[in-house]
Amino acid sequence: MNQDDRGLATRLLHGRGANPLGAVAAPIFDTASFAMADMAAHKRTVEDPSVHDYYSRVRNPTVAALESTLASIESAPRALAFASGMAAITTALLALGRRGGHFIASDQLFVNSREWLAHDLPDFGCEVTFVDLTDPTALEAAFRPTTRAVFFEEFTNPLLDVLDIEAIVAITHDHDALAVVDNTFATPVLIRPLELGADIVIHSATKYLAGHGRVLAGALAGSGPAMDAIAVMRRRLGTIITPHNAAAVMEGMSTLELRVDRASATALRLAELADAHDATSTVNYPGLPSAPAHELARRLTGGHRFGGMLSFALLRPERKAAVYDAFTRFIRATSLGDVVSLVDSVDDPNVLRLSVGIESADDLLVDLEKALDAAL
Ligand SMILES: Cc1ncc(COP(=O)(O)O)c(C=O)c1O
């Protein structure tokens, strides 16, 4: 863990460090390659490609500025930025799983992560066991001598279950494996998994970190030989982020804490409204005192904000389309973590998921009430 004791908002704004030219906004180094000073510099680069900026598939100063900010906010010695969240996940698991590795994965994962683990990784010679990570006995029983890592989202997508990072990390480390956490939903504002003992934290930076729905981006932070292996795999696969998108993510991150604060406050009010409405059978929001994972969420987050993601099940699944169609301020779209509010129809036949943006809360409350009325 790094020793940066500045507040999160300061790290979000100044984590990239000083710019040698004094540029206040991060300059975009929009170039594929960089000139070599002489043959000696060329030789040094061939020996160790990580020492110089020489080719933007390997290193780039704009990407490095983003990575330094990411490392700072996730309390990590090192971070790597990727072309998308899936680029981060696939590159990391390929690097960790090489030569017949076994993974334990949460049985509640974002659909593409689950499909990659279930269908693609086995084709690359890896084995995967899906486990209900709320059950420590099931986790214990799943380890093998070849287990490399346990992969999970601590706020799950789309049901907003909360997993106990510290308990999972303790069992994982007993078996000499790595705990790899997808922190996309919670963001470093709510939870910083590395401070709770996890080894690697991953983000779809497309979501809250970038925050404006404009770019695809991924991020990963951690320490040790695993990060070296992932950096080499990223270089070979070419899954690094572009300099332009790196600058867009940095710009988004500068307001991350403000946006998550605002979205959390509105999401709690929306969850209370949905909970009290006759159309819903269940409301999944860890900030509701009645939520099964509320106490755990309080412990992990510090207890005063619970994020902008919520989902709910309808009593009458046959009215799901009518509710979805009735929203006028929530935009019907996939993705999440944007400044605008989004409603998404997830796999489950009676569940809708909301990503709460930063619009005026009263407008969103009116919109949700009207949409739920369409289910009655
Ligand atoms: C929890 C989670 N992880 C990873 C991803 C993948 O990110 P991306 O779409 O940036 O590849 C998503 C996308 O929705 C997600 O919700």
UniProtKB/TrEMBL annotation:
EC number of the protein: 4.4.1.2
Cofactor: pyridoxal 5'-phosphate
Protein name as annotated: homocysteine desulfhydrase
In-chain residues carrying the UniProt-annotated modification N6-(pyridoxal phosphate)lysine: 207
Catalytic activity: L-methionine + H2O = methanethiol + 2-oxobutanoate + NH4(+); L-homocysteine + H2O = 2-oxobutanoate + hydrogen sulfide + NH4(+) + H(+)
InterPro entries, alphabetized: Cys/Met-Metab_PyrdxlP-dep_enz, Cys_met_metab_PP, PyrdxlP-dep_Trfase, PyrdxlP-dep_Trfase_major, PyrdxlP-dep_Trfase_small
Gene Ontology process terms (BP): transsulfuration
PANTHER family per record: TRANS-SULFURATION ENZYME FAMILY MEMBER
Classification via Pfam families: Cys_Met_Meta_PP
